[in-house]
User: Fold this.
Amino acid sequence: MSKLAGKVALVSGSGRGIGQAIALKLASEGAKVVVNDLDPVPAAETVAAIEAAGSEALAVVGDVTAKDFGERFVKAALDRWGRIDIIVNNAGYPWDGVVQKVSDEQWYAMMDVHASAPFRVLRAAAEYFKTAAKAEKERGEVVQRKVVNISSIAGVNGNPGQIAYAAGKAAIVGMTKTLAKEWGRYNINVNCVAFGWIKTRITKPIGSGEETAVIAGREVKMGIQPEFIAQMEKMIPLGRGGTPEEAAGAVYLLCLPEADYITGELLLASGGFLG
Assistant:
């Protein structure tokens, strides 16, 4: 039997890259998935891939930093399937710069997407979680739910040129540990995965194409200098960057019933880089 059969998962930023891999992995184990992307085309592609594999999905298209996004995201799951079992706050992107060159706009953009957006999603889900847990307790049932927030080794250990990104990714670690304490009584596990170098369009070598992306109307530079990638490969014990599927595997581990007694933890998926 599929490990997540009957579960409903929300995965932000799941139109491509790591988020798409997470959505597909959860769906492959039986979960129904609410997919999200800024753009309708990649969101629809993920939904189609999930449906082709035999599970169910729907798309909530839009910017996760919009004030009403959290409510829309949660409502979509409840309206369609009447429950929420897993929330993965994955959406994000780097907008880099050293401290003296980072504008207020840049700073707040990084805090909004990596801290405020997940906060609003979780706040929107809080009433459902509380009500559902109370009803289950009255029936003598225990239903374990999962929240997995996504951080980065930059948020754990810092990284030159990423002060705003690192601050946002550090904030979600604190959010994780706090909610684990607040929501334990509702049988909710709240954990965080911090990724190292995962090979996506954001972390391609500069010069390999697709070096900018338009996000929330802003053109943001993507990619990593090839010489820096070569340095990282020497410092990663496994000798390479991870794949989106390997990143998704780390998230999946924390969604399993076998992880029901793990909460408030930070899991590093970095190939041993910070091990």
